[in-house]
Amino acid sequence: MTIDSIDDVQSMLAGEGYICGRALATVTFLSLKLGRPLFLEGEAGTGKTEIAKAIASALGRKLIRLQCYEGLDAASAVYEWNFAAQMIAIRTAEAAGGADRKALQSELFNEDFLIERPLLEAMRPHEGGAPVLLIDEIDRTDEPFEAFLLEALSDFQVTVPELGTIKAQEPPIVILTSNRTREVHDALKRRCLYHWVDYPTFDRELDILHARAPEAQETLSKEVVAFVQKLRTEDLFKKPGVAETIDWAKCLLALDVIDLSPEVIADTLGAILKYQDDIARIEGSEAQRLLKEARADLAPV
Ligand SMILES: Nc1ncnc2c1ncn2[C@@H]1O[C@H](COP(=O)(O)OP(=O)(O)O)[C@@H](O)[C@H]1O
Ligand SMILES: [Mg+2]
């Protein structure tokens, strides 16, 4: 598949059920064209992880995901030695008697005993073209890891002390995401093309729902989206993302709901709000008011 324009990106992603606005399509196009990492920041559930999956699938590339977490260090992101296999090799050599220590050592630290972790795997050649490397939720790691990543992404190479430096012949397509629980360092952002992934507009969210829950009737889909959009204007601890909109629609479908009512909303609020304080705030008269407002927005003028 060749990508020659922003429109190409939009239709390529639409083919994967990913609905992408013009701004995100533009930065994605540029990232692919210029071979620059793409840094996507935004609230949870706005489609940051999903776009990496959609790109990989549309281009027929392998998706390699590095899920970040607190305490993730460079070594475990790049490689590990297979201790168990090394131990067996040592035992076998001992049993055979008179193992040459030097020879054994170099044997134990060769590729046969190397377990590749995402960053190393992403630098390797892959059939069908360079993989998509998704570095997900980078805000969960710490600054030393960011500095390490910056280096790896500058030269597209990683070092295994016992083996040397491994450089990508063809750089991977890199997508980094952050839920912005903290600011990611400028230096890393500067390496990348940046885009803030916002909550979608009503029309776009309805398109997403059509793509992800096509079995829902139009009336219900519109009410669901309008209600969630209203809900996001409320002062909540955690606003619902697109993922919640889709989940909620699916719950309502499973309950054979045809249109929303305050009772149905109260019974299913757990699909869109995940904090008891938020649920307590919205339940009852608030839900009724929001539904009324959502319906007023939907009414033809
Ligand atoms: N633009 C979109 N088009 C289609 N589906 C979307 C879109 N944005 C979000 N989704 C849906 O929402 C879910 C959650 O998105 P995800 O990428 O995991 O969010 P994030 O990584 O931003 O927290 C996805 O599985 C997908 O079904
Ligand atoms: Mg994500």
TrEMBL record:
Under the heading Gene3D superfamilies, the entry gives:
P-loop containing nucleotide triphosphate hydrolases
Output this protein's name: MoxR family ATPase
What CDD domains does this protein map onto? AAA
Question: Transmembrane region positions?
Answer: none
AAA+ ATPase domain boundaries? 34-212
